Amino acid sequence: MWGLNPDRFVTTNNLRSMAFQLPEIGILTLGMMVAMLHGGINLSIVGLANLTGITVALVLHAISPQGAGTDAGWFNGLLSVIAGLCVSLAVGFLQGVLIGFAGVSAILATLGTMTLVNGACVLITHGSTLTGFPNTILFLGNGSLGVVPIPLLLFLICAVLLSVLLRRTTFGFSVYMLGTNQEATKFAGINNRLVLLKVYLLSSVLASIAGLVMMGRFNSVKADYGQSYLLITVLAAVLGGTSASGGFGKVLGVVLAVIMLQLIASGLNLLGVDPFFAIATWGVILLMVMTLNHFLRPGA
Amino acid sequence: MKHAREMKSLASKSEFYLFFLILILGATFTFANPKFLALQNILDLLKSYSFFGILSVGELVVLLSGGIDISFTAIAQVAEYVTVAVILQYGGNLIAAILISCAIGIILGLANGLLIHFLRIPPIITTIATLNLYFGALYVISTGNIIYRVPQFYQDLSNATLPGGVPMVVGLWTGVVIVTGLILRYTLLGRSIYALGGNPAAAERVGFKVLHTRLFVYSFIGLSSGFGSIVHTALVQSAIPNSIVGHELDVLAAVVLGGANIFGGSGSLIGTFMGVGLLAMLGNGLTLMGISSYWNDVVVGCVLLVGVTFSSLQRMLLASRRANVLVEQEGL
After folding, report:
1. Which of A94, A107, A280 faces B137 most closely, judged by CB atoms?
2. B2-330 belongs to CATH 1.10.3470
3. Distance to chain A for B70, nearest Cα, Å
4. What is the pLDDT of residues B52-61, one digit of tens each?
5. Residue A210 at interface with chain B, using a CB cutoff of 8 Å
6. pLDDT tens digit string along B128-146?
7. B124: which chain A residues are within 8 Å (Cβ-Cβ)?
8. How far apart are CA B69 and CA B61, in angstroms?
9. Would an 8 Å CB–CB cutoff place B23 in contact with chain A?
10. Is this prediction's pTM over 0.90?
11. CATH node for A2-296
12. Is B144 on the interface with A (CB under 8 A)?
C-alpha cells in the first residue's frame, strides 16, 4: 500500500485537500442520517444540493450579473443563498407532508421528489453547467478562517448543532422513538406527523448547505453533480452506527465514519485506482459493515 | 371475509383509476397529435418499452414479497455485456445467449437473496451495495470498452414479428407476464410471495418457507433482468457498460404507479403493465406534443408523487374504515 506511504499521504497538501473534500460528503451524510434515524431514507439529498446551487446561481445572476472572480457584495450573496435554502426547504416541506401526513413511504416520497428536483434542475439548466461565481460564493467553498477551511467549519458547526438537537431536545428524542416503534410513540403523546415534517425539513436544509459547499468548491453547478455520493452517504451513515431500520445512530459516529471514508477515498486516489474500482469497493465495504453489524449487534 | 372483499374491491379500484387516467391521457395526446394513436406508433412504443416491461415484472414480484431491489439494472448490465463478449469470443446462437444471460442473472440475484435473508440487511441497502459492486466490477473488467457490433441474431430478434405485425420482443414480454401470472396465481410459491409481503411473521407460522420464497424472488428478478438484457441488446444493437444502470428508479416508479404496495402484499401484473404503459405514454406523448424532453423528469416526478399520495391516502382510508368496523363489532 505505497499510496499510504507516510511521505506521500500525510503531507500538508493532501490533508488540506481532504479537509476541503470531506465536508460535502459529511454534511450530506448528516442529512441522510436524520432521515434514517426515523426508519426512513432520503434519496433526494444530492438532487436538493444541486437545486440549491442552481437557484443561487440564478438569483445571483438576476440581481448582480458581474461574473467570475468579482465581488458581488455580501448582501446579494446572502440573498441568493437564502433563496437557495428556501427552495430546498419547500421541497423538504413537501416531503414531510407526504411522509408525515399522507403516510407515503419515505422511499417513494423521496424518490418522487428526487425525480422532480432532478427534472427541474435539468429543465432550468438545459443540462449545461452554470459557472463563474463571484468571490463571495467561492469563499464558502475555498476560503479559510485562519488554518481551518470554511467548509470544514460549516461541517463541524452542523455536526455540533445536530448533535445537540438530537440528544438534548424533545424533537431529537422523538425521532429516535419514531425509529424504534411508531405506534408506541404515538401513544406516548408525540405528534408523529409534526416530527416527521421537521425531520425532512432538517434533512433538506442539510442537503442544501452541502450544495452551497459544493458550489463554492467547484465554482460551478450542474444538474447531475455528485450522483455517486448517494451510496457513499448511506455507507457513511451505516458505518457510523446509524441503524438502517431506525432508532439508533450518533453524530459522532457519522463524523468519524466520514473521516475514515475520506481517508480511504484519498488513499485509493493516490494509488491511481480506477474510479469504478472505487465504486465497487464502496459496495463491498457497505456489505462488510452490514455483515459485521449483524454479528456484533444482533438487535440493531 | 368482508375485509377480503373490501381489499379486492380496493385493488380493482386503483387499477380502474389508472386505466381511466391512461384513457384520458391517451385521448389528450391523440387530440394534440393524431399520430399518437396510430397502430405503428403504439407498436413501436410497446417494442421500445419491452425491456422496461420485463424488468418491471421482476421488480413487481420482489415488491410483492415485501422486499425491494435496485440492483437489477446492474445485473442486467453485467448479463448483457458478459453474454455479448462471450458469444463474440466463442460463438453461439440466441439460445446460448439466453442461457448465459439467465444464468448470470440468477446467480447475481441469488447472491442478493442470500445476503438479505441470512445477514438480515435491509433490502434497500443490500441492493444499493450490490448495484455499485456489480456495476463497478463490470466497468473495471470491461475497462469501459463499448462493443459496437453484436452478433447477427440480435438484429434478427429485433426485426422478427409475430403474426399481426406485433414485434417479437413484445411477444417475449407478454410471455414473461403470462408465466409470472401463472406462478403468482396458481402455485403455492405464488401464495407464499403474497403471504410474505403481507405479514412475514404470520406467513412463517402458517408454514410458508420464508427462505425459499426470498431466494426465489431475488433470483427471479435476476432471471428476468438477465432475460430482459437479451431484449435490450436486440433493441440497442450494442453493449455499452453503462446503458442500463441509472434507470432503476424509473422501473420502481412504474411498478408503484401500477398499484403495487411498497410494503408488500398487494399488486398485480395488469397494474404493473399499466404503470409501464403510463410512463411510456408520458414519454412518447409529450414528445409528440412538441414539449421539450427537459420536462420529462418533472412530469414523471409529479405523476409519481400524485400517484403514491393517492394510493397512500386510499390505504389510510381503508384502514380507518376497517378499524371503525372492528370497533362497532366489538361494541366498544
Report:
1. A280
2. yes
3. 12
4. 999 999 999 9
5. no
6. 899 999 999 999 999 888 9
7. 41, 107, 244
8. 10
9. no
10. no
11. 1.10.3470
12. yes
